[in-house]
Design goal:
By secondary structure, the chain is mainly alpha-helical. The protein is built from two helices and no strands. Helix 1 runs antiparallel to helix 2. The longest helix is centred in the C-terminal third of the chain and has 85 residues. The radius of gyration is 35 Å and the shape is rod-shaped.
């Protein structure tokens, strides 16, 4: 492969790695937001339960208890939903990390290939120069031998 083609391939690999890295960052931000939402909902649920206990100790009956239990159930459902989203995001992050590692490996492979091509080109150039020097030396030696 030509060096230019390899450089284009390397640029593509770098762009892919950068894209995956940005996606990974976005997923981590989403995970952080969902974690904060879960924290907030858990704190709110604790507060609602505490207030319900206070109301129950003062005498709360019938529909009020039913409404309070329904409300806490809705909060718990919301928490479960957010935990499910969090689990999905964690799996996506895990997969994205794997993909990012693969991109880096591919990028390094292309870099090594470029190094090999550059080394081979330099070695070939060195061989050509050596041949030219040998031919020049031979001609110089022959010209000198003939002139004597």
């Amino acid at each position: 492969m030509k060096a230019q083609t390899l450089k284009l391939l390397l640029n593509q690999r770098k762009a892919q790695t950068e894209y995956v890295s940005k996606e990974l960052g976005e997923l981590r931000k989403q995970l952080e937001r969902i974690s904060k939402q879960i924290e907030t909902l858990n704190a709110y649920l604790t507060d609602v339960r505490r207030k319900s206990s206070e109301k129950a100790s003062k005498g709360i009956f019938g529909d009020q208890i039913k409404n309070q239990l329904g409300f806490t159930q809705k909060i718990q459902d919301g928490i479960r939903q957010q935990v499910h989203k969090k689990d999905i995001l964690e799996n996506q992050i895990e997969n994205m990390i794997r993909k990012w590692n693969e991109c880096i490996i591919e990028e390094r492979k292309v870099e090594k290939l470029i190094e090999k091509v550059n080394y081979a080109t330099a070695k070939e150039q060195e061989n050509i120069e050596q041949k030219m020097n040998d031919e020049f030396s031979q001609r110089f030696y022959l010209a000198r031998a003939i002139s004597k």
